[in-house]
């Protein structure tokens, strides 16, 4: 599917960790890499695409596909009020009016039509068959990120070329098409097996990859490749913030959990005070993301790990420092 030496794929990690340098290092080591299109202005994404293309390696781009974006205004306002003390700790004000956007969806699609890449993947929702076909017509393979066999069947009907099956152990946002639903807590290998029993499409596995044994297990159940994200967060080329890097190695953070507290979508993070204090956050993405964004920026700037979104998969203790190429070689060997 990716025409690479190693069946290792660098996940698109929006918000900073995915960089041109990281993608290039993974590609040069024999893997395949995605650029994260989420949370980026189209011009910034175009610049990254040009920078990576200049290095002569094929790559993919991931987009956040807009789904149903409903906000219960009373619940949102109550959550904004609940977060007041958190914001005051950093001198930040919170806007109680929900902000909803589609992350420059149409502009990014126009960019990928005008400047095609090898692979386009989608997260959070499934685009219509006409979008899938239009990207295929300019030479891109199209992958849908899904979490269940039922979602896989819907993606197949949309005409995608393959699936990224994300297990519940993956760090960061869950790709579930229903943000009100927490992903079922089963091994990624079982999620892959269920999908393969229902859908005849190439499958890539994501979630819980903490070493070569996990790669072996996922390939053994039929995955064509495995996606790594958390294992790359502390590498030299990743754009992970210093605060996030520190937390990943801090023994005080001894577990991860799914939370909606930071963005209004289920996402796996290290359990810190913010996660514990706000267990009943509303399901309202991207409104909650915009609500907490300045607070999270302020927390990160001063090293406040108690209020920062510390995305991490269950294998975060195995995330090494050093060159990303060494991680790819370690897994591939």
What are the key terms here?
single chain; 333 residues; alpha/beta; TIM Barrel; 2 domains; eight-stranded parallel barrel; three-stranded antiparallel β-sheet; 13 helices; 36% helix
Any chance you could write out the topology, listing elements then pairs?
Elements: E1 8-10, H1 20-28, E2 32-36, H2 42-53, E3 60-64, H3 73-82, H4 84-88, H5 105-114, E4 119-123, H6 129-137, E5 141-146, H7 149-157, E6 162-166, E7 172-173, H8 188-198, E8 203-206, H9 212-220, E9 225-228, H10 242-248, E10 256-259, E11 267-270, H11 273-277, H12 287-301, H13 324-332
Parallel strand pairs: 1-2, 1-9, 2-3, 3-4, 4-5, 5-6, 6-8, 8-9
Antiparallel strand pairs: 7-11, 10-11
Helix pairs in contact: 1-2, 7-8
How would you portray this structure in words?
The protein is an alpha/beta fold. It folds into 2 domains: 8-66 and 102-240 and 318-332, TIM Barrel; 69-101 and 254-309, no CATH class. It has 13 helices and 11 strands. It has helices at residues 20-28, 42-53, 73-82, 84-88, 105-114, 129-137, 149-157, 188-198, 212-220, 242-248, 273-277, 287-301, 324-332, and strands spanning 8-10, 32-36, 60-64, 119-123, 141-146, 162-166, 172-173, 203-206, 225-228, 256-259, 267-270. The protein has an 8-stranded parallel beta barrel, surrounded by 8 helices. A 3-stranded antiparallel beta sheet has the order 7-11-10, with no helix packed on it. Helix 1 runs parallel beside helix 2 (42-53) and helix 7 packs across helix 8.
């Amino acid at each position: 599917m990716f025409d690479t030496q190693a069946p290792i794929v660098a996940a698109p990690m929006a918000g900073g960790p995915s960089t041109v340098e990281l993608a290039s290092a993974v590609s040069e080591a024999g893997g395949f890499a995605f650029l994260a299109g989420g949370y980026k202005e189209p011009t910034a994404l175009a610049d990254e695409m040009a920078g990576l293309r200049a290095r002569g390696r094929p790559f993919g781009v991931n987009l956040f596909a807009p789904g149903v974006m409903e906000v219960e205004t009373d619940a949102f306002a109550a959550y904004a009020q609940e977060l007041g003390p958190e914001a005051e700790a950093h001198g930040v004000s919170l806007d109680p009016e929900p902000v909803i956007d589609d992350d420059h969806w149409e502009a990014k699609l126009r960019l990928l039509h005008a400047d095609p890449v090898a692979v386009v993947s989608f997260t959070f929702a499934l685009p219509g068959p006409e979008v899938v076909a239009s990207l295929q017509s300019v030479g891109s393979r199209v992958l849908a990120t899904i979490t269940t066999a039922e979602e896989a069947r819907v993606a197949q009907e949309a005409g995608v070329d393959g699936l990224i099956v994300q297990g519940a152990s993956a760090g960061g946002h869950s790709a579930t098409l229903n943000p009100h639903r927490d992903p079922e807590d089963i091994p990624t290998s079982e999620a892959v097996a269920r999908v393969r029993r229902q859908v005849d499409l190439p499958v890539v596995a994501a979630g819980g990859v903490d070493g070569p044994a996990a790669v072996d297990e996922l390939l053994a159940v039929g995955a064509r490749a495995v996606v790594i994200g958390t294992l790359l967060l502390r590498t030299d080329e990743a754009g992970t913030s210093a605060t996030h890097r520190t937390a990943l190695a801090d023994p005080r953070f001894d577990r991860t959990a799914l939370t909606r507290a930071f963005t209004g979508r289920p996402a796996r993070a290290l359990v810190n005070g913010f996660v514990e204090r706000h267990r009943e956050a509303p399901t309202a993405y991207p409104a909650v993301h915009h609500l907490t964004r300045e607070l999270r920026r302020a927390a990160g700037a001063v090293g406040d790990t108690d209020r920062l979104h510390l995305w991490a998969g269950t294998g975060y203790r195995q995330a090494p420092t050093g060159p990303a190429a060494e991680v790819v070689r370690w897994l591939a060997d």
